[in-house]
Amino acid sequence: MPTIISTEHLHVRYNAEMALADVTFTISSGDYVGLVGPNGAGKTTLIKTILGLLAAESGRIEIFGRPAARFSEWNRIGYLPQRVASFNPLFPATVKEVVGLGLLGQKHFPKRFIPGDGKRIDRALELLEITPLRGKLISELSGGEQQRVFLARAIVPDPDLLILDEPITALDPQTRDNFFSLISRFNREKGTTIIMVTHDVGSIGQYANKFLYLDRKVVFFGPFFDFCQSPEMNKHFGDYSQHVICHQHD
Ligand code: ADP
What we know:
By secondary structure, this protein is an alpha/beta fold.
């Protein structure tokens, strides 16, 4: 399988504080990676570094086989931040317009919509079952509905890699299950590579094939099966935690 993201000995620091130390892993095409770790473990820092929003102090990152510094096809990556509120929810835009923004990143200047774009937007709305919300203002929607709109915006360009910060606050359990199932469908049916930052260590094993446990350094990276069979991880996490993470795989 082609490599989608690889990092080697990545170190990232905020002033005096080392946020990531010696982080090395390889994500292959079609992987669904559950990225887990305590608060402050560096999960967001890792995502921002992959997306080129933060500079590493040392180490290497390759994206789709190219050094990150020379990578330019950002439209191949869809990103759903945890807090959609970073987009001003009072901004007077309709659902269709917000989803359409996901296509503009692909275009060269001048950035204009072309005739096929309407169909692509409609398809994304259909996939997320939000067609009836098409003409509504984003400010009129519930948290769960807004999350779907932003997910539609992330998937409308048909990215090869989707990076998601799990929405933990805005969604009720049912909506959250639907969200997880939908992401799984992209992974299975379209082969989209997924990196899911999650706090839900008890559920992520249902969906993800790889597990990345970060605590400033990589505590574990690999298939769930290996994690669950590992005496070293059992020693690190204890029986109970390993069971919570692994009960899908026993
Ligand atoms: P996580 O997403 O796993 O909760 P973060 O990547 O947000 O962790 O943070 C990792 C560490 O870096 C934390 O100790 C956090 O306080 C620190 N940190 C994050 N962002 C900044 C920043 N902009 N300036 C200084 N320190 C930061």
